[in-house]
Amino acid sequence: MTAMAETRDLIRLMTWLSPAFPIGAFSYSGGLEQVVADGDVRDAGTLRDWLESLLAQGNLWNDAVLFAQAHRAAGDADRLAEVAALAEALSGSAERHRETMLQGEAFLAAAAGWPHAVLDHLSGAAAYPVAVGAVAAAHGIAAEAGLAAYLHAVTSNLVSVAIRCGVIGQTHGVAVLAGLEARIVTFANVAAGSTLDDLGAATMRAEIASLRHETLPTRLFRS
User: Fold this and answer.
1) What is the tens place of the pLDDT at every residue in 66-112?
2) Can you count the helices (H) and strands (E) in the chain?
């Protein structure tokens, strides 16, 4: 790949995973708002621990595996449909289902600015990691690079949630992201070579928080 092509791919990833890309990620906390209300995340240290758990053995890890599967299946409509169906079925709560499916749908609609047949394969609807993984592959972006950008974007959004919930300030938020940088790179590398056998989560408190969030009396976020 030429230097110009690499730069183009970098800019494309930055655009797709920018907070300005119209997928409404700012509306969702993935249950983090409930976790803050419960006091489990209360400062920069507990936020970093929480995010690292999600990356290592939670829903972010499963999303990374599904991203990699969608990336490999991008050229096979039937296989891609199977991955998309699995990703949707793995949503652990109504709010998680709404979060991943609506973001995925919005991503595909916005990605129509870069026309490709893969958009037709997904029929305008897919879980967010599947949508991004398939579109990245369709445009020749390597799985590891796409995964690193995806995980960084999702983690950055969660840090933003913590800032808006008043847990940390912006300076501490940047420090949390800096501290997770090496871990994100590692998980992106491992997930790029993963298989469906690697799916699995052990973050029960996160899943329960996501289930409980819909009953939180005062909410800033939809999940």
Assistant:
1) 999 999 999 999 999 999 999 999 998 999 999 999 999 999 999 99
2) 11, 0
Helix (H) or strand (E) holding 14: helix 3-16
3-state secondary structure of 17: coil
In a domain, 127, yes or no: yes
Tell me the C-alpha distance between 221 and 161, whole Å.
Answer: 9
Q: What is the CATH number of the domain that holds 201?
A: 1.10.4190.10
Domain count across the chain: 1
Neighbours of 132 (CB within 10 A): 32
Residue 7 lies in a domain: no
- Segment 153-178, tens digit of pLDDT: 999 999 999 999 999 999 999 999 99
Angle at 184 between CA 63 and CA 19, to 5 degrees: 70
Could you count the other beta carbons within 10 Å of the beta carbon of residue 154? 26
22 is a domain residue: no
**48 — phi, psi (to 5°)?**
-60, -45
